[in-house]
């Protein structure tokens, strides 16, 4: 899965020459065979490397603050989202929903790698949501819909339909 | 910019070290672990950094990165890789390790958990030629990994094995000023224990029960039911076991008394702390000892262990004498009365003792006196003279709380014998000016009294040697080990074993004729004497350490007496006594009250549980579900209703009932033919795995944890039915009908397994299920043998009985009514105080409840408050120069409350002889 994600990212970044990957361990941690040095291990590490390779540093944040925020969400993706239990999902969605209340993107005012990777990571959780729940996490859903339609982001994941009009006007259900 | 940190939080180590290392300017504020700093996160996350833009960073790694970047050091790709490894692989293992070491006292298992990541780190470092992880200078990766490692590496008690390269690198980084200072700030030299309060607030790592012990794989998702992958081999093995069928030997529930140890069997002796007779036990007492011991005993009998479960009421002591005076009865009458109350309560709770005795018996006298003489002959008793106040009028020595007088420090006229309420200083009763006996108001005289002390220091070396063996070989709960360790650490002191009382076992020594044994010398001997009343061959259990394994169940306040004092008596007697192998102590069960009664929660008592109309099995289930295993827990009515409705009714009951109803409705009450498909085998494997977990946990007396696996099985079952929709398939063609039959047949067999696993927890429900299904009794022992096998008990053609629902919904208004009836108002300590008059009215008696052997911190808290309030009232009256009679009445009430408080705090109201010695 992580490898498909990385190859989607390569396409998005417009990298012409595909890199060579393998995986490591039971968790299938992606490994990039790097010609210029030792192999790089880990989804986030490899993804950051690709962004640099494509010379798109702004995708890692345009200021020191935003770079830290981007890294924080990348870490969140691999250390929280990827290992959460069913009960955790609700908390994660609730937190993200509150966080995204006044934001278009996860970090700063532009699309970053954080949006791409958190989108990929949260996709399977959003698939499971009922229409009603999607409305409950309205900010997450709005952000999610925006990212999945962001040009070139969604390559390997199926689109998720998000209704534009609210069906459930209140939460008394 | 502002950094929020909390004490003892290992993640704060990272950011403080990074802050010092980079020299970034930033305010640091220390807050509570619970403080919500990051507005959008539901769970408190610390450390957190408030950035100049107003954004928050809540990841310690991101904070460290930021600090390094602002100071001009951007992280390299290698750095990124280390940080990612730390967050995804190392932290989960560390969290588990810290949880074990700090909270569970299982430091010895930590090396296993950390071995994988440490080996990896060592290997990587061994290949490098640079002093630090990413080069010649310290990078953010060094700081983050060092800080992660620091808590476990700096604790010398964890033998983590040889990691030469890690050690060298770690020592290099530890030497840096920034790291030293951060370590001091966060852990304050307290080591692992400094993190206790932080760890207690972290969710427990879920991986401990994972089959895969490799720490890097211990992601919580694995233990999530839906995602546990079942291998082909597992399915094959499960299907094979399924076809094995039942043992031919039937299970008999009748026990042949007396049960005695048998050669070649696992001989298990289970005791539950002896409840103190003078009160009605409350729910905390019940879950703490008798109920836990009962579940384990029932389980043990299913496992075909040769098991004896004894308990009884602890009847001697001042508290009984006082109660007798209050109720106008003799101590013996009080004991008879309350022993009967205890028996009937335990009977209602279905506590299946092999024998429930009492301590006021001839055997008790014989055995205590025998142990006493043996200790005496071997020089383990010492004599000391103690000065005490004696009331000649009452013809007795006065307990500290039974005397009052003028405080020697502040001249307050109503100081108690042990402490002055005005200045708060501790007092030696003989120092009081104008002392008065509280009972008759006469002036007591100082008399010296000779007492015998058990010479614990002389036995200390032997005790430690035995403890080392017992705690490492047996299953002692973490709190039991911890409490015992702390007693030994402080050094043992001689302990008085005699008292100037009447109601007790007489001391046989002619020089101490008027005295009785102190209850804690005498009470644990009750286990022996109660067994002796059960069978003359009691010594086969109690003087047979090679054949017998002894389990003691209790609440944690009782630990020192079972792990230190009593073993010392038995070791000193040198009579080959059976000493405890497994000491199982619970934490406390608290009472959570409704919002409108903030100050005082109230207990529910054994005899009231019956009056709620809620079945005994449901009470048992809820108490066991809440069993304070590892940490305190709280009883709540609303939660009880919720657990009943969600777990029992919708999950467990629903599944069992559906399975039975399908057989009845679709197959005329006969179990249909089954042809196992891949999906069915998968369910068998899942259920079989849960069964094995259950057995592993129960063997280790993790009663609450094991219960979760029962509920998991019915969840699997519900899901299995839901996905396969037998109610639809039954209307289809032959193939579909066969499918419906298979699913129904498998389900009804899962339900049968559930009835077996439920037996220790809910014996009546368990029996009802087997009755409804006409299940043979032999299924009881078959499936719980060895590591556990799930077999087909009800094969095709078996006719089941009448199926009916097992549980009833607890409605909101019903529970609200109960809450009103039993919680709050009439039972708060305050109202208890205001209604207290010469004879104590019934509701006040409720507040009188003491926990096992008198100690009850919850009640102590309530009473402390009540004492303070009553004290204020008295002071106000005195300031107003109110009538003397009014004041006297209020003062009497105050004194009474204080007496209750003393009992609740476990302080003996008898004279404390050691205090006299100090003079």
TrEMBL record, chain A:
Keywords: Elongation factor, Protein biosynthesis. Signal peptide: none annotated. GO terms for biological process: positive regulation of DNA damage response, signal transduction by p53 class mediator. InterPro entries: AIMP3/p18_C (IPR053837), Arc1-like_N (IPR053836), EEF1E1 (IPR042450), Glutathione-S-Trfase_C-like (IPR010987), Glutathione-S-Trfase_C_sf (IPR036282). One of its GO terms (cellular component) is cytoplasm. GO terms for molecular function: translation elongation factor activity. It holds the Pfam family Arc1p_N_like. PROSITE patterns: GST_CTER. The keyword Calcium does not apply. Residues 49-171 form the GST C-terminal domain. This is Eukaryotic translation elongation factor 1 epsilon-1. It comes from Scomber scombrus.
From TrEMBL, chain B:
Residues 198-227 are annotated as: Disordered. Residues 199-221 have a biased composition (Polar residues). It catalyses: tRNA(Met) + L-methionine + ATP = L-methionyl-tRNA(Met) + AMP + diphosphate. This is Methionine--tRNA ligase, cytoplasmic. SUPFAM superfamilies: Anticodon-binding domain of a subclass of class I aminoacyl-tRNA synthetases, GST C-terminal domain-like, Methionyl-tRNA synthetase (MetRS), Zn-domain, Nucleotidylyl transferase, S15/NS1 RNA-binding domain, Thioredoxin-like. InterPro entries: aa-tRNA-synth_I_CS (IPR001412), Anticodon_Met (IPR041872), Glutathione-S-Trfase_C-like (IPR010987), Glutathione-S-Trfase_C_sf (IPR036282), Glutathione_S-Trfase_N (IPR004045), MARS_N (IPR041598), Met-tRNA_ligase_1 (IPR023458), Met-tRNA_synth (IPR014758). Residues 859-915 form the WHEP-TRS domain. Its EC number is 6.1.1.10. HAMAP family: Met_tRNA_synth_type1. Keywords: Aminoacyl-tRNA synthetase, ATP-binding, Cytoplasm, Ligase, Nucleotide-binding, Protein biosynthesis, RNA-binding. PANTHER family: METHIONINE--TRNA LIGASE, METHIONINE--TRNA LIGASE, CYTOPLASMIC. It holds the Pfam family tRNA-synt_1g. GO terms for molecular function: ATP binding; methionine-tRNA ligase activity; RNA binding. One of its GO terms (cellular component) is aminoacyl-tRNA synthetase multienzyme complex. One of its GO terms (biological process) is methionyl-tRNA aminoacylation. It comes from the Eukaryota. It comes from Scomber scombrus (Atlantic mackerel).
């Amino acid at each position: 899965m992580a490898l498909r994600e990385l190859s989607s990212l390569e396409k998005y970044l417009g990298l012409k020459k595909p890199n060579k990957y393998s995986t490591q361990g039971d968790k299938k941690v992606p490994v990039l065979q790097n010609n210029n040095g030792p192999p790089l291990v880990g989804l986030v590490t490899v993804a950051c490397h690709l962004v640099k390779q494509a010379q798109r540093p702004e995708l890692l944040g345009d200021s020191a603050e935003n770079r830290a925020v981007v890294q924080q969400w990348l870490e969140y993706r691999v250390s929280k989202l990827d290992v959460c239990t069913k009960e955790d999902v609700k908390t994660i969605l609730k937190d993200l929903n509150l966080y995204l209340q006044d934001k278009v993107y996860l970090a700063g005012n532009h699309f970053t790698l954080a949006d791409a990777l958190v989108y990929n990571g949260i996709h399977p959780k959003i698939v499971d949501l009922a229409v009603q729940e999607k409305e409950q996490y309205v900010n997450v859903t709005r952000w999610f819909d925006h990212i999945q339609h962001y040009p070139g982001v969604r390559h390997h994941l199926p689109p998720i339909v998000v209704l534009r009009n609210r069906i459930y006007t209140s939460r008394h259900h | 910019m502002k950094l929020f940190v909390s004490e003892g939080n290992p993640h704060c180590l990272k950011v403080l070290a990074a802050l010092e290392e980079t020299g970034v300017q930033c305010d640091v504020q220390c807050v509570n672990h619970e403080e919500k700093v990051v507005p959008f996160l539901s769970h408190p996350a610390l450390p957190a950094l408030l950035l100049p833009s107003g954004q928050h960073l809540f990841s310690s790694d991101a904070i460290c990165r930021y600090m390094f970047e602002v100071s001009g050091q951007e992280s390299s790709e290698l750095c990124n890789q280390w940080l990612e490894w730390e967050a995804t692989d190392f932290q989960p293992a560390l969290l588990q390790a810290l949880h074990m070491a700090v909270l569970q006292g299982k430091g010895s298992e930590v090396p296993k958990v950390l071995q994988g990541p440490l080996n990896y780190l060592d290997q990587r470092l061994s290949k490098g030629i640079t002093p630090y992880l990413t080069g010649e200078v310290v990078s953010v990766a060094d700081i983050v990994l060092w800080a992660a490692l620091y808590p476990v590496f700096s604790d010398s008690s964890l033998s983590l094995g040889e990691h030469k390269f890690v050690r060298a690198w770690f020592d290099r980084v530890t030497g840096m000023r920034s790291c030293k200072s951060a370590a001091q700030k966060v852990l304050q030299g307290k080591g692992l224990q400094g993190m206790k309060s932080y760890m207690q607030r972290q969710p427990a790592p879920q991986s401990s029960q994972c089959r895969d012990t490799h720490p890097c794989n211990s992601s919580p998702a694995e233990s999530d039911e839906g995602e546990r992958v079942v291998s082909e081999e597992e399915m094959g093995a499960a299907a094979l076991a399924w076809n094995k069928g039942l043992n031919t030997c039937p299970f008999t529930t009748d026990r042949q008394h007396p049960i005695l140890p048998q050669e070649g069997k696992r001989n298990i002796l289970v005791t539950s702390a002896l409840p103190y007779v003078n009160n009605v036990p409350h729910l905390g007492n019940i879950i703490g000892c008798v109920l836990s011991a009962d579940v384990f005993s029932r389980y043990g009998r299913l496992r075909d262990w040769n098991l004896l479960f004894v308990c009884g009421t602890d009847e001697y002591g001042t508290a009984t004498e006082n109660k007798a005076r209050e109720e106008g009865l003799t101590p013996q009458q009080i004991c008879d009365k309350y022993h009967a109350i205890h028996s009937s309560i335990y009977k209602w709770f279905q506590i299946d003792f092999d024998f429930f005795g009492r301590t006021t018996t001839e055997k008790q006298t014989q055995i205590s006196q025998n142990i006493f003489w043996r200790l005496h002959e071997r020089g383990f008793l010492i004599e000391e003279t103690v000065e005490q106040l004696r009331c000649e009028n009452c013809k007795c020595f006065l307990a500290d709380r039974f005397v009052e007088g003028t405080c020697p420090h502040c001249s307050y006229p109503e100081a108690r014998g042990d402490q002055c309420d005005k200045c708060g200083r501790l007092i030696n009763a003989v120092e009081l000016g104008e002392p008065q006996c509280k009972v008759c108001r006469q002036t007591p005289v100082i008399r010296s009294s000779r007492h015998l002390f058990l010479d614990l220091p002389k036995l200390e070396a032997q005790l430690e040697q035995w403890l080392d063996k017992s705690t490492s070989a047996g299953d002692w709960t973490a709190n039991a080990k911890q409490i015992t360790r702390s007693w030994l650490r402080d050094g043992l002191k001689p302990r008085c074993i005699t008292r100037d009382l009447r109601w007790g076992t007489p001391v046989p020594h002619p020089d101490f004729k008027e005295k009785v044994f102190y209850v804690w010398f005498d009470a644990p001997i009750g286990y022996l004497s109660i067994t002796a009343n059960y069978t003359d061959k009691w010594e086969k259990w109690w003087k047979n350490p090679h054949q017998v394994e002894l389990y003691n169940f209790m609440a944690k306040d009782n630990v020192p007496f079972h792990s230190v004092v009593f073993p010392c008596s038995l070791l000193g007697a040198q009579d080959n006594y059976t000493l405890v192998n497994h000491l199982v102590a619970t934490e406390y069960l608290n009472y959570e009250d409704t919002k409108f009664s903030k100050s005082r929660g109230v207990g529910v008592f054994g005899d009231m549980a019956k009056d709620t109309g809620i079945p005994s099995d449901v009470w048992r289930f809820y108490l066991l579900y809440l069993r304070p295993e590892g940490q305190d827990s709280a009883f709540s009515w609303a939660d009880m209703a919720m657990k009943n409705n969600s777990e029992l009714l919708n999950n467990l009951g629903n599944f069992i009932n559906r399975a039975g109803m399908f057989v009845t409705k679709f197959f005329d009450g006969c179990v249909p033919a089954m042809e196992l498909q891949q999906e069915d085998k998968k369910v068998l494997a899942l259920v079989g795995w849960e069964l094995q977990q259950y057995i592993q946990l129960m063997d280790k007396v993790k009663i609450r944890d094991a219960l979760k696996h029962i509920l998991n099985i019915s969840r699997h079952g519900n899901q299995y039915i839901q996905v396969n929709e037998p109610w639809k398939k039954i209307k289809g063609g032959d193939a579909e009908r066969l499918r419906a039959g298979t699913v129904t047949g498998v389900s009804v067999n899962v339900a049968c397994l559930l009835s077996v696993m439920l037996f220790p927890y809910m014996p009546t429900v368990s029996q009802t299920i087997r009755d409804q299904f006409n299940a043979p009794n032999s299924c009881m022992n078959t499936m719980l043998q060895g590591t556990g096998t799930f077999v087909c008990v009800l094969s095709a053609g078996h006719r089941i009985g009448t199926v009916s629902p097992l549980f009833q919904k607890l409605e909101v208004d019903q529970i609200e009514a109960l809450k009103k009836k039993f919680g709050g108002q009439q039972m708060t300590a305050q109202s208890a105080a205001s209604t207290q008059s010469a004879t104590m009215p019934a509701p006040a008696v409720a507040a009188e409840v003491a926990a096992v052997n008198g100690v009850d911190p919850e009640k102590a808290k309530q009473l402390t408050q009540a004492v303070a309030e009553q004290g204020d009232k008295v002071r106000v009256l005195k300031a107003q120069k109110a009538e003397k009679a009014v004041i006297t009445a209020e003062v009497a009430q105050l004194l009474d409350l204080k007496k209750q408080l003393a009992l609740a705090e476990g302080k003996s109201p008898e004279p404390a002889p050691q205090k006299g010695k100090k003079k």
